[in-house]
């Protein structure tokens, strides 16, 4: 995946997180948690970019960095989970660009 494609994908995931969605890789399936209207709105994008999203979710670097940063922002920073996740994706995007 090119740096530009990765940046685009991370922007999509950050927007999903901003809408309150949480994506979880479960085998070859992506489980989506969050408000029903947001799930319905993002489902076509998730289906279209499933392979890329699964690769990102399975990525040890991306997953670990994301979870750590989201937890810090939520529990130590007092942010709502959706806001903490959006902030975490911005941080992960910067990390992955350095690789």
Automatic annotation (TrEMBL):
Task: Check the UniProt entry and state the signal peptide residues, or none.
Answer: 1-17
Keywords of the record: Signal
Q: What is this protein called?
A: TubC N-terminal docking domain-containing protein
């Amino acid at each position: 995946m090119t740096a530009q494609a990765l940046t685009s994908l991370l922007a999509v995931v950050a927007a999903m997180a901003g809408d309150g969605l949480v994506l979880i890789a479960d085998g070859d399936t992506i489980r989506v948690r969050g408000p029903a209207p947001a799930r319905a709105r993002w489902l076509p994008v998730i289906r279209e970019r499933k392979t890329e999203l699964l690769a990102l979710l399975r990525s040890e670097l991306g997953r670990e960095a994301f979870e750590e940063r989201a937890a810090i922002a939520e529990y130590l920073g007092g942010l709502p989970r959706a806001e903490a996740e959006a902030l975490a994706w911005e941080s992960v995007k910067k990390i992955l660009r350095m690789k």
